[in-house]
Structures
1.
Amino acid sequence: MPWRGHSAVVNHAIEDRRTHGVSPVRIHKPWEGIVMAKDDELRPDVAAAKASLRSTVGSNREIKKLVDHLWEGETVERFVPGTYGKGSGLLTLTDRRLLFTLDGMINTQSEDFPLDKITSIQWKSGLAMGTIVIFTAGNKSEITNVIKQVGKEIVDVVRGRLNEPATPAPVVAEAASATTSIPDQIRELGALRDAGILDEAEFTAKKAELLSRM
């Protein structure tokens, strides 16, 4: 039999099975059965952050589950794939923190870096990818294999917020100590005189002293 190529042999085998009443073998496709969240199923802020990335390969599971890791009222601004701790996941910048999540079939991880706890942040650029270095009190964390453009943008945004002047705490004005007016002091002196505590001469001298201050 002349050689007919792989596809011809497969087709011939399928036809033989059909001829003899045997159901053809179904070739399994490994990507079948995997359901990814569509952009219109994502929360608007998450969908907007996803749209700003050229590629989300390897992070679709983390993007789909991201809202499960967010605080109430927290807003997603940007995210980028990266490697940290147990493996490759997603680094997300919100209005409150940096958050790394990994939602794999075996490994899972969630670690956050609140913006008010970050003391410094650095960007290290490599040949193809870069590294984000986060410093907190006594700790240093590195997220590697980060897309250059997006990673640097995230670092610049966080660094800008760290450099913003702290909002001063509301100043509560202390009530000024009440100063008794001179007429009130004269009335008090009169009461002391009437009570017999001061005599007329003492009352008159004190009264004259107070009136001289007016």
2.
Amino acid sequence: MANQPLLLPADGADVLWHPELADVGLALIETASHRLSIAQFIVAATLDSDRSARVGALLDAIVRADRRGVDVRVMLSPFRSDEDPFDLNDVAAAQLADEGVAVRTWSNPWRQSLHSKYLIQDETCALAMSANWSNGGLGGNVEVGAITWSIDTARLLETDFNDAWEFGEPVQGVG
């Protein structure tokens, strides 16, 4: 498996801690060759000048993967609170959609939100984690994740992702 990061073994599963989660996620995005399926509860991007360096690096890598021909799909959960009607994921969704990346927001009538946080690379490798893509999730909090090269596990997550994708509402670019 030439596309996997060199810092991890090629079989089984490994437990990862912060800040490795962002680094390994970035490596998986940058080395994907044909498909990336990304489900995230929160991607806390702000306008370019203010956004977290780690969140920005992940978003930029997603755009680069899409431009080099990788089939990239990003599923986000709507994230609004009673106190603030602004959706925390709107900025990232719009930035990615403006660049041509396929983005959908969760809209399953039987489930309130998509709380999953995982990335599947080329249907052969999966990274699941507790971390949101935010300053806290990728740097300030204690977070844990696991990466596996089990094709069965990756396919199981891909099936879950495809089911969620069917319920998603496409995000249109605004630029």
